[in-house]
TrEMBL record:
This is Replicative DNA helicase. GO terms for molecular function: DNA helicase activity; hydrolase activity. It comes from the Bacteria. InterPro entries: AAA+_ATPase (IPR003593), P-loop_NTPase (IPR027417). It comes from Micrococcus cohnii.
């Protein structure tokens, strides 16, 4: 079998087959067709690719969202999907911040936010990302569609691209996918959505999709198979991220399940409900966690420190020492709790009242 290396010294001018007799190049000198369709030449398609993957979010081989490829962020309710999306929107619009330690390339055009799932909640989440002094910039660069789309996007596959053109958007956030297309478990619907997303991508629009997982059971599928709906939803995406946790958790697990390059993570992510910012938890800092949660118990901290739902006695004791040390230094306030029956409950640690 001939390999590309074997062809280095070969005269390719003599090896290309003749065009068939029925092709008359004089009719179409630029090789265009009467339909107006444009075809790339094979050399440009194969050899004119950049050496590194152009990234919307990430750099080098650590790419979470590649240009020209959709990113899906999925998970259960209340795990921070909209929080992460909001930070990406801010970085795209203002170009002034990283997200989870990874750079975000500023948007060349507008950002279209399809706030189809609980738009008022999305507005509250986004409000934590911007200051009122930035209103003019946000008004110019961020366009929002609140509520359901005009039509089902899996049925009218050109609608997503059309709305992006109307908004002059270079990036679109789909929040959430279940509201863009009905019946996502049907392969026909999944394929229709994939065609819609690919149409937007071919138009140069970068696509971020927020999506849900199947209802968790002991025998539920794991990993990328836990994404709700047709296999075409994830098959057509370039990158898939899973946020794993319970509703309202301040700390969730971040898993990069499908990658355009190297895997990023896994790691824990801390959501700060007050600021709307998320950070990678490399070493569980009790003060940071308490600020995000409002309060914490010894068992809570042990679970975060050792990434387990059932910490051992030794792990609980290590967490106890950390919290008691911070209480002794007055950085935390320690408050024993008592049930109405008089039984002792878990002690709660909080940030002292500065007043």
């Amino acid at each position: 079998m001939t390999t590309p290396h074997d062809l280095e010294n070969l005269d390719m001018s003599e090896s290309a087959p003749e065009r068939p007799d029925y092709f008359d190049p004089s009719l179409y000198p630029d090789e265009s067709l009467p339909t107006g369709r444009h075809y790339l030449d094979g050399g440009a398609f194969i050899f004119d690719q950049p050496e590194t993957i152009p990234a919307v979010w990430g750099a080098g081989n650590d790419v979470l969202w590649a240009e020209g490829e959709a990113l899906i962020v999925y998970g259960g309710s209340g795990v921070g999907k909209t929080t992460i999306a909001g930070q990406l929107v801010r970085a795209l619009v203002l170009g002034d911040s990283d997200v989870l330690g990874q750079p975000v390339a500023p948007a060349a055009g507008n950002v279209l936010y399809l706030a189809m799932d609980r738009p008022r909640q999305a507005a509250r989440s986004l409000s934590r990302q911007f200051h009122p002094a930035q209103r003019d910039a946000v008004s110019r660069r961020l366009k929002v569609w609140p509520g359901p789309p005009p039509e089902d996007m899996a049925d009218r596959t050109e609608l997503l691209r059309q709305m992006c053109r109307e908004a002059r958007a270079s990036h679109v956030v789909v929040d959430s996918l279940k509201d863009a297309a009905m019946g996502l478990s049907d392969d026909r619907v999944g394929a229709g959505w994939n065609r819609a997303r690919q149409g937007a991508l071919v138009d140069g629009v970068q696509v971020l999709e927020l999506h849900h997982q199947i209802k968790a059971r002991a025998d539920s599928p794991k990993g990328i198979d836990a994404v709700y709906g047709s296999t075409w939803i994830t098959t057509g995406a370039g990158s898939v991220v899973h946020l794993d946790g319970a509703p309202g958790d301040a700390v969730v697990k971040f898993r990069h399940l499908k990658q355009p390059a190297d895997e990023v993570g896994p790691f824990d992510v801390l959501h700060d409900a007050r600021t709307g910012l998320s950070t990678v938890v490399n070493d569980a800092d009790p003060l940071t966690i308490v600020r995000a949660r409002g309060q914490i118990t010894v068992n809570d901290l042990a679970g975060v420190m050792f990434a387990t739902d059932a910490p051992s006695r030794n792990e609980v004791e290590k967490a106890h020492r950390k919290l008691d040390g911070l209480a002794r230094s007055k950085q935390l306030e320690k408050t024993p709790q008592t049930a109405q029956s008089g039984a002792a409950m878990a002690t709660v640690y909080t940030i002292p009242d500065s007043g």
